[in-house]
Amino acid sequence: MSQSAAATLRQRLADPSKIVVGAGVFDGLTARIALTEGFDCLYMTGAGTTISRLGLPDLGVATLNDMRDNAAMIAGLDPSVPLIADADTGFGGSLMVKRTVTEYIRAGVAALHLEDQPTTKRCGHLRNKQIVPEEEYLGRIRAAVNARAAVEGDIVLIARTDALQSLGYEAAVSRLKNAIALGADVAFLEGVSSAEEARSVCESLSPTPVLFNAVPGGLSPAWSVAEAQELGFRIVIFPGLALGAVYEGVRRACKRLKETGTQDGSVNPHDLFNVVGLKEAVAFDMAAGGGLYDKGV
């Protein structure tokens, strides 16, 4: 039996000399491209999921079903590659957190993160975020840990706090320490603002791995993978990687079509379909005795 994605991620996190890099994707095409380019960990962005599936901003409007279905599809493309997925606030009280963790495990997700904003949350790199009382937040973490223990399977639990901007560094790190004491595997201090803060949180929470959220133009410096590792982070995610590229590329293509009546023909259908498994699909059909593709495609 092959090793689970969660076990693979845990194995990588056990090596303090390595850093896990999560390429930010939000749908099947962007995930396939990242896999083709050789990334060995993917990150499903909640903002990207909300934008791509609903056409709405990341303001707490995506439901568990929206997020789980997208995560299940991405995780299933290559189950050997760990997927870290946003789980927002857990989508409700303790019973909803239990359902969220259970559904993510069944979907094959390797890790999820839970935050301490209210259910009507917003993207972590927007301003004026609200924060729930610490006991409510820790109740979510406790429910997640208990849910994981109750279901067959495993998932890496990442405790995220957005309290840095409103409550300050000490209060935010205290929340993470308490979440770790309850059984969280990784800490995520959203909106780290300086190298000094970064080094401090990584040292304070050691040996627990700490995650860095790389969002250019957001609340944190735009550190590279090497810089994040030097500061002590063990995971770095790039949630806007595909989202920003798609926004720029599609906007440019639409502008060209609108202004010139032509489109860029640099990508042909075969190239696109091969990225998402055309050759493998044809080979599978032929091995099963099918004749649909005997003359090629």
UniProtKB/TrEMBL annotation:
The reaction(s) annotated as catalysed by this protein in its Swiss-Prot or TrEMBL entry are:
(2S,3R)-3-hydroxybutane-1,2,3-tricarboxylate = pyruvate + succinate
> Which chain regions cross the lipid bilayer?
none
Q: Which GO terms describe its molecular function?
A: methylisocitrate lyase activity
Q: Which Pfam families match?
A: PEP_mutase (PF13714)
Q: Which InterPro entries match?
A: ICL/PEPM, Isocitrate_lyase_ph_CS, Pyrv/PenolPyrv_kinase-like_dom, Pyrv_kinase-like_dom_sf
Family matches, as PANTHER family: PHOSPHOENOLPYRUVATE CARBOXYLASE, PHOSPHOENOLPYRUVATE CARBOXYLASE FAMILY PROTEIN
Q: What is this protein called?
A: Uncharacterized protein
Organism, by scientific name, is: Penicilliopsis zonata CBS 506.65
